[in-house]
């Protein structure tokens, strides 16, 4: 039941469920300088609408999203990602994701990434009702020249804040246009379970098309996002998953 509340809190204010996509930190390009076996990378971005898995978690308003990751050359990493939120008693003003995992290349052009993310909301006050939860995420990626494909499986088991378990599957494609700083992207995902209760059937499909332009440490991206969630007739809810175009400007270090 938690996700329905998360997805609708923007309307109740007028969700913050999970970030993202994949791991939340994927939303920011990460460029770091190695110091021995460790690499520290991070960045900050401003997005016109914090959309996660097709749903607006910022009530269609601008969000600021910082990230920081510490990686070891063995493949293990830990980090944090955050996003500003519309103020609400249940979720406060900020989402904070803490994550850790292991990433490595298992064959030429093929990589895996497995980890766990903890989603927490500092400053929330909803009468003691839990909002934090954990999610396990696994990815398999393969590159063929400028084309890359990534399959993602995310699983959130039954927890106090969820009431039931939840699955999310995603297939994403990226194409780096040769001899340009432009990358084209497309993705389709399927959500089912407690984190998809905003959909009448308890499951839904989301998809996106986008492009990004890299100039030094800065990245400008534009993305069309949509879902197949049926309208409820309540405008405050329906606008959270209306088709939209999202603009994001990020700087990495």
Structure explained in plain terms:
This protein is mainly beta and 253 residues long. It has one domain: monomeric porin ompg (Porin, Beta Barrel), CATH 2.40.160. It contains 2 helices and 15 strands. The protein has helices at residues 2-13, 235-238, and strands spanning 33-35, 38-47, 51-52, 55-56, 63-72, 76-88, 92-107, 110-120, 133-144, 147-156, 166-176, 182-193, 203-215, 218-227, 244-252. The strands form 2 sheets. It has a 12-stranded antiparallel β-barrel with strand order 2-5-6-7-8-9-10-11-12-13-14-15. A two-stranded antiparallel sheet has the order 3-4. A hairpin with a 5-residue loop joins strand 11 and strand 12 (182-193). The protein is globular and about 50 Å long. The relative contact order is 0.18.
Which CATH architecture? Answer: Beta Barrel
Classify the fold: give the CATH topology.
Porin
Give the mean pLDDT.
86
Structural class: mainly beta
Question: What is the domain total for the residues?
Answer: 1
| CATH class group | Mainly Beta
Which stretches of 5+ consecutive residues score pLDDT under 50?
1-34
Main sheet properties: 12 strands, antiparallel, barrel
**CATH superfamily placement:** monomeric porin ompg
**Separation, N- and C-terminal Cα atoms:** 38 Å
Number of helices: 2
As a percent range, the share of helical residues equals: under 10%
Count of strand segments: 15
Side-by-side strand order of the widest sheet: 2-5-6-7-8-9-10-11-12-13-14-15
Order of helices and strands: HEEEEEEEEEEEEEEHE
Question: In angstroms, what is the radius of gyration?
Answer: 18 Å
Envelope shape: globular
User: What percentage of the residues does DSSP assign to strands (E)?
Assistant: over 45%
